[in-house]
Amino acid sequence: MKNSVVFLTSLLSLPAGAAQAEVLWQDFSVSYLNGGNYRVGDRQRQVYTLEHVAGTSWGDSFLFMDHLRSANGDRENYGEWSPRFSLAKNGWYQSADGLVKDVLVATTIEMSELSTHYLYGVGLDLNVPGFNYVQLNMYRRNNEQLEDNWQTTVVWGFPFEIAGQSFVWDGFLDWFNSTDDQRASCNWTSQVKWLASPALGLESRLYLGLEYALWRNKFGIADSPAFRTNESNVSALLKWYF
Asked: Residue 1: what pLDDT?
C-alpha cells in the first residue's frame, strides 16, 4: 500500500495541464527475440514484445509488455510503464541549446506475476550530437518484496548509415545499488537494427538485427558457481512498426 500511495501522489502532484493531454507523436511496434543464453530460468527463450512510445503536450510515455516462452514450457509476462512529465513543456524550465534540453519528473511502474515496483525521480533529456535522443533518469525504487533502493537508467538512440543502408543502435543501461537482501545489479541491453522494409518493398518500418544483453547479478541475485546470474546473451531480432 505504501508503494502505491507514493506513486499515485507523485502523479497527482503534476501540473493541471497534464489532464488535457495532446499526443504530438506516437509509435506502436511488435518485436520478436530468440536467444539461447538467458540466466535465472531456462536458457532458451523466445520473447514477444508490444511497445508504445509517445511524445505529448505534458511530456512523454513509454510502455511495453513482454511475453516470454521458454523451451522447457515455462511462460512469463512482464511489463513496464514509464510516463515522464516535462518541466519545459509546462513552463517551469527554459529549454536551452546546452547539454540539458529538458528536466522531467520521471516515474515507472514495473509489473510482473510475482511483484510490482514503483519508481519515481528526476529525468534529464540531453543534447548529444548524432543521437536522436539520450535520456538520464535517476529513481528511488519502492520495491514490493525487497528493501527500497536507488536506480539510474540511461536510454539512447543513434541512427547511422552504411553503404546507403539505414541502421539504428539503441538501448538502455540500468544500474541499482545493493541492499541487505539484494546485490548491486547492472543491465546493459542494446540493439543494432537494419531497416529492411525498403529492400522488401514495405511501407511500414521493419527492422532486422541483433540484441545483446549484458547483465551482472540479474534481478539482484548474486552470481556464484552454484547459481549463475551473470548473463551475456545474443538474440536474433525482428521489429515491426505499425
From this structure: 47
pLDDT in tens, 96-122: 789 999 999 999 999 999 999 999 999
| DSSP notation for 132-167 | SEEEEEEEEEE-SSS--EEEEEEEEEEEEEETTEEE
Q: Which residue has the cell 510502455?
A: 63
- For residues 169 and 187, give the distance between their C-alpha atoms in angstroms, rounded to a whole number: 16
Distances (CA, A) of 226 to 40, 183, 223: 12, 16, 8
- What's the grid cell of residue 38? 538467458
C-alpha cell at 161: 548509415
Q: What does the alpha-carbon distance between residue 89 and residue 121 come to, in Å, rounded to a whole number?
A: 18
At 12, the pLDDT band (50, 70, 90 cuts) reads very low
3-state DSSP of 13-82: CCCHHHHCCCEEEEEEEEEEEEECCCCCCCCCEEEEEEEEEEEECCEEEEEEEEEEEECCCCEEEEEEEE
